[in-house]
Design goal:
heterotrimer; B: about 130 residues; mainly alpha; Helix Hairpins; C: about 160 residues; two-stranded parallel sheet; 6 helices; 2 strands; about 0% strand; disordered C terminus
């Protein structure tokens, strides 16, 4: 019982430490927030004339950031190999 | 003071979900429930990142009516009409990494069960002290 | 040893549904350029069709339809296709993963060569994701002991 009360207090303290600066954050769905101003308009405007693909998410994932996707495929391959190495046992009759 | 709560309500909702996941990781006794708490924590972060990319009055980031690049000279695309695509792209990678982590964590739980015969945290600590 | 529970409605319907799921996953992969989709999503749907076979039948029947060795080859083949296309662009005189230089072997202009390069790498991603999802599921379900799971124990059919 004491463990649950202490856990609730620590969780509330940690989350309120994260929410200290909320007054300075940008509003919800603001078109001028810093995340949508620097490199993202260039991706939206130049996708069709540079790659010919209408889906902007696929063009960014496979062409502009293709290196990250290759290492992510390697990560999921490594996870499969790790599960094989941990669990398989030789069969003794 | 009400404007802070009402205009930034996405931060409050996802902070609450973070708190639920964090509490589950600390207070539960079964190892599988702690793993579910870690999963909730990770999904709260993914939702938060996707909520950053929203724009008022904008639509899905797919440009309509394009087939090949031969019609691209007459096409004018305004960046304010489409939702920011970068958080969606980065969170696709994060989701796949989360799947890989959950798979390996479940394999480790099977090995713990084989070795100790139980999945409760206090019984495992009793076994380790001997 | 896993005992077998016969149920004819579930077996028939899942056997009927599996080809449609596989065709839908190839559709999601091919239309990744014009609508939401791509390699990861198509790979997960393809793996879900195999998982449906394993859940409806038992592991012995499902392993007759795809072998474990070819699954292991597919795991590595997808990463090989992805890195192979990047290496091919390096051979043809550009940077690594610079799909514009693929227009020297494909009969299109450099901008459409980027389109086809993207389609090729999404295929590689789908193959790897499909093989790994099925492999992780089989390992977790049998707890590593594949040959013991395939010994048939005859308990007869449950009649209720």
């Amino acid at each position: 019982m004491i463990k649950k009360i202490v856990s609730i207090l620590i969780a509330i303290l940690a989350t309120s430490a994260l929410l200290v600066g909320v007054k300075d954050f940008p509003n919800w769905a603001d078109p001028n927030q810093p995340a949508s101003v620097h490199v993202s308009p260039r991706y939206i405007e130049k996708t069709v004339e540079e790659t010919g693909v209408p889906n902007i998410v696929t063009a960014v994932l496979a062409d502009y950031r293709g290196y990250d996707t290759m290492f992510e495929t390697a990560v999921i391959f490594t996870a499969g190999v790790a599960v094989m190495m941990l669990l398989r046992r030789p069969y003794k009759k | 003071m009400w404007e802070v709560i009402l205009s930034k309500y996405n931060y409050w909702i996802y902070a609450f979900m973070l708190m639920i996941g964090f509490y589950a990781m600390m207070a539960k006794n079964n190892l599988l429930k702690k793993l579910i708490g870690m999963n909730i924590f990770q999904w709260a972060l993914i939702f938060y990142f996707i909520s950053i990319g929203a724009k008022k009055g904008a639509t899905v980031p797919i440009i309509p009516g394009v087939h090949g690049h031969h019609g691209a000279e007459h096409l004018v695309v305004h960046a304010a009409d489409y939702v920011n695509p970068l958080p969606h792209v980065l969170m696709l990678t994060a989701i796949v990494v989360g799947v890989a982590t959950t798979g390996i964590a479940l394999a480790l739980l099977i090995m713990i069960y084989r070795r100790y015969g139980t999945l409760e945290e206090d019984e495992i600590i009793e076994e380790l002290k001997k | 040893m896993i005992s077998r529970w016969e149920d004819i409605i579930i077996e028939t319907i899942s056997r009927f549904l599996v080809p449609f799921m596989q065709t839908y996953s190839l559709y999601v992969l091919a239309h990744g350029h014009g609508s939401p989709g791509g390699g990861f999503q198509g790979g997960c749907i393809f793996a879900a069709s195999f998982v449906l076979l394993i859940i409806a039948y038992d592991i012995f029947e499902a392993k007759k339809r795809f072998s474990e060795k070819i699954n292991g080859v597919f795991c590595a083949l997808g990463v090989f296709i992805y890195a192979g296309i990047g290496w091919l662009c390096l051979l043809l005189g550009g940077n690594f993963l610079d799909y514009g230089k693929l227009s020297k072997i494909l009969p299109t202009d450099p901008i459409m060569a980027r389109y086809y390069g993207m389609a090729g790498i999404e295929t590689g991603v789908q193959i790897t994701v499909m093989a790994i999802m099925v492999s992780i599921f089989l390992d977790l379900v049998t707890a590593g002991r594949h040959e013991e799971a395939m010994e048939e124990e005859d308990v007869g059919s449950d009649s209720k």
